[in-house]
Amino acid sequence: MSNKSFMECERTKLERWSQFQLANNWKTIGATICLLTLLTLIGIKFIDTEPSWLRDVLKRVLLVGLLIVVLSKEKVEDEMLQSLRAKAFTLAFIFGVLYSLVQPLADYVVHNYIYEASKENTFSYFQVLSFMLLVQIMFFEVLKRNR
Amino acid sequence: MENTIKVERAILNITQDDLAKRIGVSRQTINSIEANRYVPSTVLALKLSQVFNKPVNDFFKLNPDD
Question: What DSSP designation does A24 have?
Answer without folding.
Answer: T
